[in-house]
Amino acid sequence: MKSELNSLLKRPHVMMDLMSEADIVTLTLVLSHLTSDSKYIELIEPYVKGAFDYAARVPEEISLEIRNKLIEVLLHKNNQKTSLNSIENINDKFIQKIMSVGVGEDVPNEYVPMMKEELSFDVDNIRDFNVEYIKEHKNNNFNCVIIGAGLCGILAGIKFLQAGIPFIIIEKNDSIGGTWYENSYPGCGVDTPNHVYAYSFEPSFKWNEFYSKRDAIYKYLKSCVEKYNLSKYIRLNTTVEKCIYNEMDKKWETTIRNNKNKEKLQSSIIISAVGQLNRPSLPDIHGINGFKKPIIHTGAWDHKYNFNNKNVSLIGTGASSMQVAPELAKVAKKLTVFQRTPHWVIANPNYHRKLSKGKKWVLKNIPYYSRWYRFQLFWGFCDGIHASLCKDPSWNFPDRSINHTNDRFRINMIKHIESIIGNDKELLQKVIPDYPPYGKRMLMDNNWFKMLKRKNVELISGNINSITEDSVIDKNNNHYKTDVIVTATGFNASKMLWPMDIIGKNQMNLSNYWKDDNPRAHLGITVPNFPNFFIMYGPNTNLAHGGSIVFHGECQIRYILGCIKLLLSKNVSAMDCRTNVFEDYNKYLDEQHGKMVWTHSKVSSWYRNDSGRVITNSPWRLVDYWNMTKEPKENDFMFN
């Protein structure tokens, strides 16, 4: 046990005070885990209605009993110097029961293996079995170029370092961090709970909020680079222009540029970790190039510009707008928000909450607490709501929602909006979407509706007609004079890996293969005719309904390492995804999307390309993708 826990076990009254600030449901899951006794979860079961702390109302006398018993169990194990109850010693059916009580609904037994892997991290990282194999069997034939030093690139670097495979990370910016370096607008932060927005092998107990702001995430990524001494493997201010596969040598040649200097790198493997959201997209509005004043994209913020007492025009009402607009409204003379279509907005009691001292202490020190807490968050924000995103063919109101639960979400969100907007029918008409919940990215309410009621804020709905040298003109030909335009208009998500040229076998250009805006990959990772070329956060791996892109990244790097293990075990140098496997997977994926909310007739979003195909989002539950990527199938590939 940790020394800090050992010392406080001698002062149970202090421990009791700290534990009183933690989630009693999660503490009960820990106690049940440590004792293999079901009576504790049976005590709280009637009071747990969901996965989050605000969804449980456990009586104080039961909570007190749980805390006392947990202290007693930990003290006994410490005094007897006995080991904690390994997850391998616990019956699978009991693990399933613990999970189900913890989230207030039945969790299928297919989640047990994934949860056992999560709970094994405190003992041994079993997710790294490929790393250990590669370390023992590696040869000098493999090295890797990793493109991008954001969240996935750092993850890949850590795992390749542990596996002993030579690598270099190429980063176009002057710092690591990717999107968390590039996006620095006021209010920028995660809209996923940050306790699942961290590497499973590198949890952070320093978060001060449930939903951290940009600086905290950026600091976390920098600390990971420092801990694993990755800086010496990263080349900053360097762009990748093209990657060409040499079929004779079975090597990739990557052309990089640093200022005016070009260089060519040879590697057996390439990992693209540039992601989907790294090239800002400016709106295509008539006259925008003639605007004489500043235009600032949220993805390239100008910290020198003074917004105080200015007339600000904000274009877009998506995720970044939800975060930046309330900050701009505090200082602007007038903030005019231009909205094409409204978004659904969730009221989340934890979104602005700070983590208490006790909660932080428990997360760091109580065995297994952070792991069970992660599961509750994964369930509540992803797999637990997945069914509500699937169309019910027999549903009677398909225009407004897609199933009963989806409709309940709609009703609750409208109630939240009305509770703030009140009887302002004109504003209500502007802010309530006509499409089903989750059709577009769901947003956390960052006091958006309160902001819209400010006297210095105006919401203009509908397309912008044009922009002049000093004004924005709406569809009704109303002119809005402005000192600065802020574009919260997202990224070129459909142009994945753009502007790099990736040239595979037979001189095939990946951009042409993808027809510019139709990126596809097997499991989002591999593409036929591009041997040993792997993609992280690739096509159809975005989690639009919740979950954690970090979790997906760990699934992907494990799969990639599994591919290298295959190369070593077969004593070959290259592997290429079979076309029929690629096509079958994408056909199945498209069929799944056809059953989901993102293909609803009223939904048009950046998730879809010009032909209407969903290209960014994953239709799978976390447990599905975990199983799909657990180990590459040898028959899915051709080997040299």
- From the helix content, strand content and strand pairing, which structural class follows? alpha/beta
Strand tally is 21
Q: Helical residue percent? A: 25-40%
Integer-rounded radius of gyration: 26 Å
General shape: globular
Mean pLDDT figure: 93
Uncertain runs are none
Alpha carbon gap, first and last residue = 50 Å
How large a portion of the residues is in β-strands, by DSSP E?
A: 5-15%
What is the count of helical runs? 21
Task: Trace the largest sheet across and list its strands.
Answer: 3-2-1-7-19
List descriptors.
640 residues, 21 helices, 36% helix
3D architecture notes:
The structure is a single chain. α3 (24-35) packs across α5 (60-80), α8 (129-137) runs parallel beside α19 (549-570) and α9 (151-163) packs parallel to α19 (549-570). α12 links the parallel β9 (311-315) and β10 (334-339). This protein has a 5-stranded parallel beta sheet with strand order 3-2-1-7-19, covered by helices on one side. The chain has a 5-stranded parallel beta sheet with strand order 8-17-9-10-13, covered by helices on one side. The model has no long low-confidence stretch (mean pLDDT 93). It is globular. The chain starts with a helix and ends with a strand. The chain is of the alpha/beta class.
SSE inventory with pairings:
Layout: H1 3-9, H2 12-19, H3 24-35, H4 39-44, H5 60-80, H6 92-103, H7 112-119, H8 129-137, E1 144-147, H9 151-163, E2 167-170, H10 179-182, H11 214-227, E3 234-235, E4 239-246, E5 251-258, E6 261-267, E7 269-272, E8 295-297, E9 311-315, H12 319-331, E10 334-339, E11 345-346, H13 357-365, H14 369-381, H15 404-421, H16 425-431, E12 443-444, H17 448-452, E13 457-461, E14 464-467, E15 471-474, E16 479-481, E17 484-487, E18 501-503, H18 510-513, E19 533-535, H19 549-570, E20 575-577, H20 579-594, H21 622-628, E21 637-639
Parallel strand pairs: 1-2, 1-7, 2-3, 4-18, 7-19, 8-17, 9-10, 9-17, 10-13, 11-12
Antiparallel strand pairs: 4-5, 5-6, 14-15, 15-16, 20-21
Helix pairs in contact: 3-5, 3-6, 3-14, 6-7, 8-9, 8-19, 9-19
